[in-house]
Amino acid sequence: MTIPKEGETIQVHSYKHDGNIHRVWQETTVLKGTRNIVIGANERTLVTEADGRTWLTREPSICYFHAEHWFNIICMLREDGVYYYVNMSSPFVYDNQSLKYIDYDLDVKVFPDMSYLILDEDEYAEHKKKMNYPEVIDQILKRNLDKLLMWIKQRKGPFAPDFIEVWTSRYRFYKQVKKNDQ
């Protein structure tokens, strides 16, 4: 597997279990790229939905993807603090300038005070039937949801207090480099 290089711009592709594209983020700047972890950032990037609709992200975001965990974490930097949106998903693969994963419907919204809501349980149940999620996927997702909730409570990974400072600083650096190159 190739590894995205720090400073390069990649796309992020989200698929559904049946192989259909779900959503594409046009531009994400790679802040860290290893075999296991990709940390990226984007701001006002174009997002294309499966039905062709498009929209722009509203705020700067730091995105955390892992090759072993069944979730990815979007850290949205807002005026009143950092909000986190977690997609329960397959681990990522990196292929042809694109980071790819399967979105498994369940989401967790985490607020600046680390309180959280589990979202879309009904959508998960519907798609589990419709797309025939194997029982093993269901068990993996439940284990990873438990792991994620522990990370939130323990302020681990992207929920650690210094995570945002470190990666927003790196993002500002790459934005300045791109600006100077123009």
From TrEMBL:
Pfam family, one: DUF402
Listed GO MF terms: magnesium ion binding; nucleoside diphosphate phosphatase activity; ribonucleoside triphosphate phosphatase activity
Sequence positions that bind Mg(2+) 2: D105, D107, D120, E123
Named cofactor requirement(s): Mg(2+)
Annotated binding of Mg(2+) 1, by residue: N87, D103, D107
Hydrolase recorded as keyword: yes
Keywords for the protein's UniProt record, in alphabetical order: Hydrolase, Magnesium, Metal-binding
UniProt xrefs under SUPFAM superfamilies: FomD-like
Domain DUF402: 18-156
Reactions performed catalytically: a ribonucleoside 5'-diphosphate + H2O = a ribonucleoside 5'-phosphate + phosphate + H(+); a ribonucleoside 5'-triphosphate + H2O = a ribonucleoside 5'-diphosphate + phosphate + H(+)
Active site as annotated: R23
EC code: 3.6.1.15, 3.6.1.6
Family affiliation: Belongs to the Ntdp family.
Function: Has nucleoside phosphatase activity towards nucleoside triphosphates and nucleoside diphosphates.
Name by which UniProt lists this protein: Nucleoside triphosphate/diphosphate phosphatase
